[in-house]
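User: Run a structure prediction on this.
Assistant: Running it now.
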Amino acid sequence: MAKKLTHPSPKVIETYEMLRSGKPVTVDSMVSRLGCKTGTLMVHICQLRGHFAANIKNERNGRKVISYLLVNPSEVAPYMVSKAKKTKASKVAKVAVVKTKSTVSRKKIGGEVPTIDSEYDITEISDLDLTDLKLQLGHGRSRLI
């Protein structure tokens, strides 16, 4: 069995408000007032019938429904209370805290900037040399193919 709704949607409440007079209400007037399609109106009617025990009769012309009539508006009325909206707590503004780094001065030894001695020479190679090295190592495409 499907779960029963405890609070109707605003459109279902509006549908109930149109039907609670006890007089037949045409489908066209309901669709125009709700601003929805006929299929959506049928969903609201089915919710009233299934979840809120509404006894709704329909007047037909052949297969087409012309109007709806709510037979027991007093029994459905207690269910037509919208859910109370939650109020949002106000947010406390956060203050940006700027963290500063303290600088430490270091004494230079002998007043010279140390350099790293390298036993390897740095040389530039051409693209042709690079591709030859790649071919010797087994990477890349050969030029003969």
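The first strand starts at residue 25 and ends at 26.
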